[in-house]
What does this fold into?
Amino acid sequence: LKLQKMKKIFAAFLFAALLFQIFISHSVFAQSNFKTDYNVTYNVLESALTHVAFDVALTNQTSQYYASSYGIQVGFKNIENVLASDPDGKIVPKISKNNDGNNIEITFNKKVVGLDKKLAFTISFDTIDIAQKSGKVWHINIPGLAKQIEYNSFNVKVIAPKFLGRPSYIKPDIGKFDGTNLNFTKEQLGESGISISYGKEEIYNFELSYHLKNPNLFSIKTEIALPPSTNYQDVEINDINPKPLNVTIDRDGNWLAQYILTPSKKIDIKVRGKAKILLRPKKEELSQENLKEYLKEQPYWQTTKKEIKELGLKLKTPDKIYQYIVDNLTYDFQRVQTNQPRVGALGVLKKPTSSVCLEFTDLFIALARAAGIPAREVNGFAYTQNTKERPLSLVKDILHAWPEYYDPDLQTWVMVDPTWGNTTGGVDYFYTLDFDHFAFVIKGANSTYPIPAGGYKISGKKYTKDVNIEFGDSFNTRGQTLSFTHAFSNSYFSGTNIQGNILIKNTSTLISTPQAVTVTAYFLKPTMQKIYFGEIPPYGSLIIPVSFKKPSFLTNKTDTVKIAINENYISKNIKISPFILNRWTIGGGIALAIIIITITIVFYKTRRHAVPGKAGN
It folds into this structure.
């Protein structure tokens, strides 16, 4: 009897276990047991608020399982008006915040069991994190959903306000634009999110602080790097206080403001200005000789190391180098917190799982140069509202680094951002960049210099915020203004070189274009000279030497030298005379004659007084 009772108990336990297996809970929910289809709509309103709706269908792939609950992780920090429902009515969602945004979990009203049985449900909410009007540009940035590529279907519709018109770019590029609606499929998205912009240009107002100190016992000449105009941006400098001695341009196009610091001198410099960011780069033709500079090895760009050389030659092209870096490096958010040192291209190639923007950049440049592709580094400001999707790594005032390569077909430098290509899950930052990258310095000839704004810290001001950027709505279109003066003497000796200088200053807020100064004379040779000079940045100046051929030895004339830039000119009368007729010579001769006569008279009188008289009887 006991044995029979034991058998009944065991049979009951086995039946209960089988029953538990049939009605399994969400805790063992597996994607392979269900076919998941997503239709997601992002309806952007004119207020920039976005209404998001997830319409999801779960289809049972087996007869053994059902889903009792479901969770969606969304990459938005700010969500409100969260609603959920299934065919049996409303569901109260459970929302939990985390470092990646918010997790929305729902428990279904009814368990749907059976092969090919379908359970449809909807989750919706409003967020301010998708669309932003920044300055003159509207941005729509939608992070990718975790494992969206694994779903049976994943379709996304983005509805934008009609007044925005045609987008300036769409990422991923779907190749078509249907009115205000943009439709994306799982195949087009892959693991990436969506980035869309509307506008032709972005305007930034900036105020930058630089701190300089001379600890030496002697005066030094030093410099700071101002944000320059490049093929992607136009910059106007409205004020520099205190004023620099000069502003020059280096071979990479950086604007370097020069200062003299006396012993123990400490100064704080404020720079105010504006930048206009363009989406497409302007043409910038460079000779093969100039491009050779951007193939050289530099610290952190170890192009001659075997690992770098072999990989660069294997990848060969900029797009393959970019994609290799996006696919193989892992962004390390901890390194930003701990401010660990830069490891360079070779270091990150050996340890790809701990990378920040500098390593993404260093490896791209080193591989590109090793493959014979001119490349260099850009440091600056990058606008982001989602530091998880688009992180900033340069801890000094939270700046960013990205590379650029020279495209001989387009005849221009092309900026790319493999860091953001990686952290966004594959959003394109190779074929089209954005309006969000504002260059402070370019490093091509040197991998560590110049230092961008935000990096000029001294003791006692280590934690000051030195980079302040705001969106603007206007940019100077008044053009350039040059002032010029001369440094010629009033008179010259005939038979000698006639030389002088022209000092040209840029008195406008914009960089000047390359042009020419014309120097003419009546009889001095050459009678006309056209001297070309390059760009001059705001607050910059240039000295141009001018010389004429030696006039004949007996020339005794006055000539008028005319100096003209565009329609403006100045004149200078120059007296050329023989040495013996020169006013200084004549004046000197008269003075010498007076001195000789005076000495003669004194000598004569002295001698007369010295003659002895005759003796008397």
Remarks:
- The longest strand covers residues 201-213.
- The longest helix spans residues 583-609.
